[in-house]
Structures are given as C-alpha cells and as structure tokens.
Amino acid sequence: MDSFISNEYCVDIMKAPQSHLAFYKELGVSPVHQDIADFSQHLDRRRSLYRSLGVLPSLIRNAHVLEVAPGSGHNSLYIATCAPSAFTMVEPNPVGIREIKDLYATLDCVHTKPDLVASKLEDFAPTNTFDIVICEGWLGSDPHEHEMLAKLGSMVTLGGVICVSLVSPIGLLPNILRRLLAAQLSLNSNSDIRIPKLKEAFSQHLDTLPDMSRPHEDWIIDNMINPAWYGVCLTPSMAVEALKDDFAHLGFSPRMITDWRWYKSLYGDNRKFNEVFLESFYSMAHNLLDHRALFPSRDPAQNRAIESTCFDLLEKTMACEFNQGDIEVVYSALDTLLDLITPISQSTANAIAETQTLLRQNEIKTADIASMTHLKPLFGREMMYASFTREA
C-alpha cells in the first residue's frame, strides 16, 4: 500500500484558518441546502449516488444508520425513505438542527423518523455500532479530521459500510481560480456586501451547470467566502490512510475505478482492494480537471505531481487571501500548473491563463468575472464519494 500513499499533505499544511462549524455559527447559516421542489428527482439523484457506492435500498432497509454532519438534512431524506430500522443523525450547528426538524415535520411520505443528536462528533459516544455510517461534505485535509474519520470507522459494524465524500485539489482547481478572483473582487468588504457582489460575478458561471441543485447564494457562502473551504480536500490516499487496513474499498462516484483482476485470484494477501483502488484513481485523476472532458489513462505518478502542485496553489491562495503571502508566488504556482496541464487539458490551461490576465488588472469588476470566456464554463469533478467495508 505504501507506494500509493503520501502523507505530504496529511500533516498540517492545509489546515484552514477557521472550521465550518465556527463559520456557520458566526454567520448564523447552514448553507448546504438542496432544491427538492421535484422530490422524486431528488430521491433519484441520491439513489443513483448510493448505487455507485454499492449501497442499495435493500441494504439500507432495516439497517442501523448513522449520518454525521447532515447540515440542513436534505440529503438525508433518501436514507429515511428507505426505512432503516434506526437512523441517527449527529449535527452540531443550531441552524442545521432547526432546519432538520422543520424539514422532517413536513415530510409527507413513509419514512424512518431520525433520532437527532445535537453534538459534535468529538463528543458523540454511542454504545452500539452501525451497519452504515455516512459523512458528507465535512471531513478534509486537517489531521484532526482524519482522526474523526478513523473514529467514524470505529463505529461501523464488522461487515458494515462507511460512505464519505472526498475532494481532490485537482477537481478543485477551477474553484481555486475563482477563489483567487473572489478575494481580489471583495477585498475589505463585509458579508452583506460581498455575497451579492460575488453572486453577481459567479451566477453566470453556475448557470452553465445544467443539473445544479444548490442555491447560488449557498454556493457563494460556502465556496467563495467560507475560510474552512481551504481545508476541504480529503483525497482518496488520505481516506485510505485514515481508515487503515480495517477497511477495504467498495464503491466510488464517479465510477472511474477499474479492477481487471480475476475474482478467483482475490484471496488472502492478493486482495489488495485499496492498493488497486488508488492506482486506478491516480491513473485517471486528470479527468477531474474539466467535467466536460474525458482523457485516456496515464502514469499515476504524473497525476500525483498535479495533485501536489494544486495543493501548493491552494496553500498559496489561502496565504494571499489572509495577507500572509504574496500574489507573485501565486503567479509562479499558476505557471507551474500551466506546464503540467497544457499537454492534457487545453480548456483548463486557457482558464488558468485567462485568470492570470484578469488578476494582473489594476481593478477587477464583477462584469469582468461574469463574462469570462474560458473559466465561466469550467468546473472540475470536484466532489467525489467513496465507500469502504469494514473487514477487521
């Protein structure tokens, strides 16, 4: 396993200046809502996600399920409608707790009523384990959060499943470019001014995503203002390292993982599901750059170099935004990325060059960002999901 795991960014290099919970409490928000006006469509989306993870409705039915950090609860509705025998939800944000209660109070279909625990994961100490454990949109690169992932793993029943969301800095790259622009555009503005200004700048970008199900304002708050955004990257290598050999890879979304080995050879020390998962992922990770494009596989080491450089850019962008770094080092990191990415994705290279040009202007206006040619339609395959089974 060691040949595919790097701890270079697992220590403290990408610790965000503020946690999600502290930021949400400070603003009095839970900016993770989903559009559920078409409820059957919402359920279909979630059903499709869990299908990719190998978690079918029959596995959820009658299971003991734990979801940690469900936010406002919209994504939990699918699990509740699959009739688990018990559904525990752990959420520390008072706004999220209130919205979850309101949401389930109006849910007009057969479902399992969740047991809502107002607690941080750090303080949650259940007396039982769970068949399915879910954590979406919270855990990232902070070493403490890796410890929390390991703690979640300890709550999974032997033979049970843990489902977590992952973020690669490769897929995050288009939004790192946007964050660079957002910091310059909204410099020294309070949130009441920043949010409308950033919404005006980026709504046309978000409009290029045909299946966007999140309110633009929530996306702006969580991606362009939230300091904790800088710590969102939980890579597949980090997840495997945190869960250790007790867990084996099961499913992934997007379904980019291949394993051509004959099942009859998968016994004892030959199984190596995590090693094959990571090798397969990193051979295709360049496809996270642009959701509109697919490229052939390549040497995993080349994509690890891109991942490392994207982490470097993310760190320098954070330092620049919080007045701890120089914009010139950001330009240097962008130049390095251009050399690595131009042979793979011209669309991404064009967006980097376009961003560099805009950053060098004396003043950036909302209209400049809204009308960008190359960055506007560029979004990476940013949010990924992985499931693992507990085997020891």
Give a verbal description of the structure:
By secondary structure, this protein is α/β, with parallel strands linked by helices. It has a domain of 170 residues: 3-Layer(aba) Sandwich (Rossmann fold). 45% of the residues lie in helices and 12% in strands. It has a 7-stranded mixed beta sheet with strand order 3-2-1-4-5-7-6. Helix 4 links the parallel strand 1 and strand 2. Helix 6 crosses helix 10 and helix 11 crosses helix 12. The N terminus is likely disordered.
A few lines on this structure:
The chain has helices at residues 20-27, 39-52, 57-60, 76-81, 94-105, 143-154, 169-185, 191-206, 216-225, 236-243, 273-284, 300-321, 327-341, 346-359, 366-370, and strands at 64-68, 86-90, 115-117, 130-135, 156-167, 247-253, 383-390. With 392 residues, it is of the alpha/beta class.
What's the structural blueprint in terms of helices and strands?
Elements (H helix, E strand, L loop, with lengths): L19 H8 L11 H14 L4 H4 L3 E5 L7 H6 L4 E5 L3 H12 L9 E3 L12 E6 L7 H12 L1 E12 L1 H17 L5 H16 L9 H10 L10 H8 L3 E7 L19 H12 L15 H22 L5 H15 L4 H14 L6 H5 L12 E8 L2
Parallel strand pairs: 1-2, 1-4, 2-3, 4-5
Antiparallel strand pairs: 5-7, 6-7
Helix pairs in contact: 6-10, 7-12, 7-14, 8-9, 11-12, 12-13, 13-14
Average pLDDT value? 93
Q: How far apart are the first and last residues' alpha carbons, in Å?
A: 17 Å
Largest sheet: 7 strands, mixed
The CATH topology name of the domain at 30-168 and 232-254 and 383-390 reads Rossmann fold
The CATH architecture of the domain at 30-168 and 232-254 and 383-390 can be named as 3-Layer(aba) Sandwich
